[in-house]
């Protein structure tokens, strides 16, 4: 039996197909989020990658900010629950998840059985999110994927003190005009995101193991800064961006399982 | 009126208080605006005026920014905005209690921003329980009476106050009864519940009591619907239509509330006067007997246990703290509430709101996650 999870975020759309709630058959990621053709494209790509047809999928669970808008879904679940399920499935030792997405940051505490015991989300603000890194990479005229490379070369990170993205932007420009080393500037930018998110994480409470999910997890500069801020090893997996979609596919499997046990036809 | 018509009536009053205000003024009853919280409305009522709640509105702020900085409570900002835009035109005065720093600023800014409606301060003591706290409160009430006599051209009579106290105590009881019956009847939606509470702040209390009693009678006759996920809501305000729609759409039932604009203000009645006490003394005792509120000084923070006890009594499965952005007193209490809920295994989420919030999707995600947790 196949179930599909689709995570429609603000900047990307991700899909995961699971076989029998256990094995990842295919995944897809399109850099276009809610309100675009991204969700449809990601959905078509994952079916194609799995060599499956729409009729082969027993249940589609949608999550993410665009979760209520995907017409083909059979159900929808919050991204907090889906990230919890996805990360715990991939890393059963995880007790704290730090999910930094395109427009928000979340910290989720898990119990030993993988249930959510607590969560916090950031305020309506780009500081401490992927959007902050996008804006800063734009000013520095480098790709967001290059930030890690620059940050890890830094010997003396610059301090970016402004909480607000707009103010931080002028702070970065001011540093650029002083010819500050770009590696140090990027490390300072990553550190800025990490310090905002660390404050959020401390509010939720930190319990090891700590895993990052979401797009920003790919950025080693932010991970390193976050580990330093929190004083714990912040881990991640290569599939960090797919954790919401994976959790949705698991939740879809549970829905079918529940239906089978109660005799309900999906 | 049948039940549906009663709910429509409450909704109409809650969403169009200006119509009601015009009616009162046309009837020759001066309208006195009362800012949150715990303005002694009984005094205003006893002087032949109609106290109408001024809790601001969900509007864009433009004019108020001439006086207020950006990072201040949107309730006080929107009260000033409405005043400066002439929405309150015709009111005889605005009474502002001094129970938080933002309210103190409102009064000072109002004097400059709204020239045609006099500002009357209602200064309360931090320490309510000792004798000097009683004396301070009484002096504040006497100052209010004197200012009202000038602003509305009415005179104060202690006997009339006794009758108004009875009207307000009856209304308090009706609102407590409504909260209890709504908790047992999940078919009363969060939006309908909010309308009943919000209309109470605008309507003359004996009129409102009559309508609430009629509504309670209808609800009592019905077989209760199946309960949704039961929550206790806490905060200053919970009247956002978008937020209440989300609460309803996600299948929550409001089991109880600790909301300043809702049940919190109906908790304590003015006691019977004792010995040689005047009715004004009895009203002073009402304020001094109050507790369990973020803006009422309490070093023991008894409010925290009150919330978890109330949640347990109402069989709430979770607590939703609806925090008005930049409300310091509520922010100070939140970590204690969260800790107490955690200790009792009661899921607790914080949703930050303000009067200018148009997109509630983050709140939806958090509430949905709370439901999935429960």
> How many helical stretches of chain B?
14
CATH fold topology of the largest domain in chain A:
Nucleotidyltransferase, domain 5
- Give the percentage of residues in beta strands of chain A: 15-25%
Largest beta sheet of chain A: what is the strand line-up? 3-2-1-4-5
Q: What is the highest CATH level, the class of the domain at 10-159 in chain B?
A: Alpha Beta
- Between the first and last Cα atoms of chain B, what is the distance in angstroms? 38 Å
CATH architecture of the domain at 10-159 in chain B: 3-Layer(aba) Sandwich
What structural class do the secondary elements of chain B suggest?
alpha/beta
What CATH first level of the largest domain in chain A would be assigned? Answer: Alpha Beta
Order of strands, widest sheet of chain B: 2-1-3-4
The total tally of domains of chain A equals 2
The second-level CATH architecture of the largest domain in chain A is 2-Layer Sandwich
Please estimate the helix content of chain A: 40-55%
Radius of gyration of chain B using CA atoms only:
20 Å
> What's the Cα radius of gyration of chain A?
19 Å
Structural class of chain A: alpha/beta
Helix percent band of chain B: 40-55%
In the predicted model, the low-confidence regions of chain B spanning at least 5 consecutive residues are none
**Mean pLDDT across all residues of chain B, rounded?**
95
Relative strand content of chain B: 5-15%
Folded structure, characterized:
The complex is a heterodimer of chains A (266) and B (374). Chain A has helices at residues 38-50, 79-90, 130-140, 147-153, 165-177, 182-204, 220-230, 243-262, and strands spanning 2-8, 13-19, 23-30, 57-63, 75-76, 96-100, 105-110, 116-121, 210-213, 234-235. With 266 residues, chain A is of the alpha/beta class. In chain A, helix 7 links the parallel strand 9 and strand 10 (234-235). The longest helix of chain A has 23 residues, at 182-204. The two termini of chain A are 12 Å apart. The relative contact order of chain A is 0.19. Chain B is of the alpha/beta class and 374 residues long. Chain B has helices at residues 3-15, 17-26, 41-46, 74-84, 101-113, 131-152, 158-184, 190-202, 205-221, 241-249, 279-289, 302-313, 328-343, 361-373, and strands spanning 31-34, 50-53, 93-97, 119-122, 229-235, 252-259, 318-324, 348-353. In chain B, the strands form two sheets. Chain B has a four-stranded parallel beta sheet with strand order 2-1-3-4, with helices on both faces. Chain B has a four-stranded parallel beta sheet with strand order 6-5-7-8, sandwiched between helices. In chain B, helix 1 crosses helix 8, helix 4 (74-84) runs parallel beside helix 5 (101-113) and helix 6 (131-152) crosses helix 11 (279-289). The longest helix of chain B is centred in the middle third of the chain and has 27 residues, at 158-184. Chain B is globular. Chain A binds chain B through residues 65, 77-81, 104, 115-121, 123-124, and chain B through 342, 347, 349-350, 352, 361-362, 365-366, 368-369, 372-373.
